Amino acid sequence: MIKEISFSEIFYVWNTYLWPNRNSPIESNSAMVFLGGFEMRNMTTTPTFFGYFVNHQLVGVNSGHRCIDNGYRSRGVYVFPEYRKRQIGKQLLEATINQGRKEQCNFVWSFPRKTSWNTYKSAGFSLVGDWEKSETSEANAYCIIEL
């Protein structure tokens, strides 16, 4: 079951499991811009944090927030290893896509790791960039789904 969670709940998962060695601060929003660059106004929108629960236990997370280009940024998808291969990541992405629709955005984008690309692809995202090294992974690429 998916429900909205708090920043502190998602922060714990991000900080402990998804980005444990990250140097830059983990914030509720990202200033990243689709296909490159940064825009600090992206930090002023209200994010939504999603948690996937099995028997009242948090087993997966994702978040999203509106960007100034009328896109919706999906970020921070993580499913605990023992719950993978059950379409939980796909369902979290679908919740984020639906939130982008609700906020009347034109598209949803992300910058996933190569290791999670199949989950994004299964949710309907298309790859639009080459794989590149980032602060938290050896291979990330931009992807998008039009709304």
Please explain how this structure is put together.
The protein is an alpha+beta fold and 147 residues long. The protein has a single domain, classed as Gcn5-related N-acetyltransferase (GNAT) (Aminopeptidase). It is built from three helices and seven strands. It has helices at 7-18, 88-102, 117-122; strands at 2-5, 48-54, 57-66, 71-79, 107-110, 126-127, 143-146. α2 (88-102) links the parallel β4 and β5 (107-110). The longest helix has 15 residues, at 88-102.
Short description:
The chain has 147 residues and is an alpha+beta fold. Helices cover 22% and strands 27% of the residues.
The CATH topology is: Aminopeptidase
Give the biggest sheet: 7 strands, mixed
Radius of gyration: 14 Å
CATH architecture: 3-Layer(aba) Sandwich
Q: According to CATH, what is the class?
A: Alpha Beta
The separation of the N and C termini measures 24 Å
Structural class: alpha+beta
Q: What is the mean pLDDT?
A: 96
How many domains, as an integer?
Answer: 1
* Topology, number of strands: 7
- Amount of helix: 10-25%
Count of discrete alpha- or pi-helical segments spanning 4 or more residues = 3
Low-confidence stretches: none
Strand content: 25-35%
User: Tell me, what's the shape?
Assistant: globular
Order of helices and strands: EHEEEHEHEE
For the biggest β-sheet, the strand order reads 1-2-3-4-5-7-6
Fourth CATH level, the homologous superfamily: Gcn5-related N-acetyltransferase (GNAT)
